[in-house]
Amino acid sequence: MVPKLTLPFVQCPGFQNIRICLPGYSILLLFLLFYPFPAAFAQEQINIREIISPLAASFTEEEDLSEFTERLSFYLKHPIDLNHTSPEQLKELFFLSALQISNLFIHIRVNGKLKDVLELQSIDGFDLLTITRLIPLITVKENMDLNFGKIHTGSHTLTLRYGQVLEKQKGYKPVPGNKYMGSPAKILLKYKYELNDRIGFAVLAKKDAGESFFSGAGKTGFDFLSGSLAFYKTGRFKQIIAGDYSLQFGQGLSLWTGSSFGKGDDVAGIAKKDSGLKPYTSANEYSFFRGVSATYSLLKNIDLTSFISFRNLDASLTKTSTGSYTLSAINTSGLHRTATEIDHKGSLGLLLYGLAATYNQNSLDLGITAYHSSYQHEFTTGTQRYKQYGFSGKELTNLGFHYNYTFKNIYFFGEIAQSIPGGIALLNGAMASLSPRISTIILLRNYGKEHVSFYHKAMGEGTTAANEKGIYGGLHFSITRKWIVSVYGDLFWFPWAKYRIDGSSSGYELTGHLNFKPNKTFKVLLGWKIKHSEQNEGSGLPVNQIVQIRKDNYRMEVHWKAGRKITLQNRLEITSYKKGLIDTEYGYMIYQDADYQPMSSRLSGNLRIAYFNTFSYNSRIYAYEDDVLHGAGSGVYSDEGIRTFLNLSYRLAKQLRIWCRYAIYYYPAKTNTGSGPEEISGSKKSDIKFQIRYQF
């Protein structure tokens, strides 16, 4: 039996009476967490985890994060030449704000080409943290590097990934219920070809756990297939894409597919950086279009993007007395494991077509979007109060106008959207560099309750760009080169009912981060988040009144380099949750990470050991988890248990590398884990993953 150690916890607001009970071996974790080990290393390398991990709570699935990690990996090998780049390319470096990108091009236009990357220090908005992240991804050259020797050669990347849960889940057992039709294996196959900046070709095939593979409903093999062929710089055509593609315009109110940031740790992500048309290479099975699209340079500063798409979406259909079919919502999970899920697959045809026009000149960008969606079956609103203003019918038209303009040190941005049928949604904001050390942002939004958009990623508290008003403000302050503070607040309210809220409601969110980095080898991060919202007291009550919900999170992280090869990271996070008059519940998590990344060795890897204890799922904690290349996501830490994983990577040859991962949750007080068809008999849940990549 593991001995227990009971310790009084340091007092902080809302936690005066807590005492933490940890396993005996966690004394070592506490020692490592708070003891500042000095270390030095020869060369600073980019830490993708440091950039990606703040996004983990918003992107819990690896499909969502892979789009960003792949771009970072690409630019590590092919750095961006700041003297010969475009705003569209820099927008792919998602940690750059729209104001920073605008200020960079204004600086080059006024002062000429950059002489050195350190010249970024003289540009408003570029703090030391941003420049440190940028340096491995950029370069500065006086003249274009044509490199004629490689003009006719392309790069090929072939990736195969396999993973599965090792314990047998209920859905795979021969018992009545939602039985899974396939094996527990999860398989991803991806091929990508790029010929400089002229041609791109990609094919992706995926099988989720529980889906059939060359049997039953999956007789043809993979459940999901995606591919695209792209041509760039063909006469006046900037790009032509056949197959699967993504469209991102404005601030995401009218038209935005693929991943996007909402509220989070990084204030820079609030003002969206649209990229227009691009090939779709993610494994997410919903957020893309399938057909043909092209961007045409009509005039020097005006581009037209036309698009047409036809897809079969997943939906649960209801047959009416007249023999027609109706639905209330689209299924976006992409899972086809059970007989019911298979029956819903591809049951809703969608024809979508439209046009986007953009005007870009110096500091001013303007754009309009217009597209029409024609669905095979009719949407109905349902009888629930919160669905009263939902979309009904088969035909939907979306219109939008967006802008951004830089005036001196202020970046203005916004969008107005109209849906027919439906209403109007409006968003306006400004981001400013008040001084070389201080930047701020403010955003106001007003989304009408009748507004409808199935392809949006607008900033907001809700999941739809409808029935919401709000005011957001943020401040980023570099106190010194060693100390950085960022804080933001968001006040929001909903005029009409929402899911699990039978009337109007409101709330607010306050978040802050303090970074201390005295040298290149050591960093401390303190973070906090306080959120108040409202929800129905319960379900099935005669009078279901709306009550207050408060959830707080407090976090401390320590990063340091223990020599040239090893990086250590620790986190202690505490959370509290209170709903109505129910007693406050608490949770906490502590973990130790160790990365082994030698400069010249074929082998690298990382390890985590974590202990967590939360009262319920309401007080759960999210934390970024390293994985095989481009497989990272967010782990959910709930109940009481231990979490550990080990990732290893080995370079077999110059062009061939393999990854493997073993991860396990152990819940000592539970006799089974999970629920429904995911239920496992026993106190642990473990999984393995293998990946191989060949580049030629």
TrEMBL record:
It comes from Pedobacter cryoconitis. The chain crosses the membrane at residues 20-41. Keywords: Membrane, Transmembrane, Transmembrane helix. This is Helix-hairpin-helix protein. InterPro entries: RuvA_2-like.
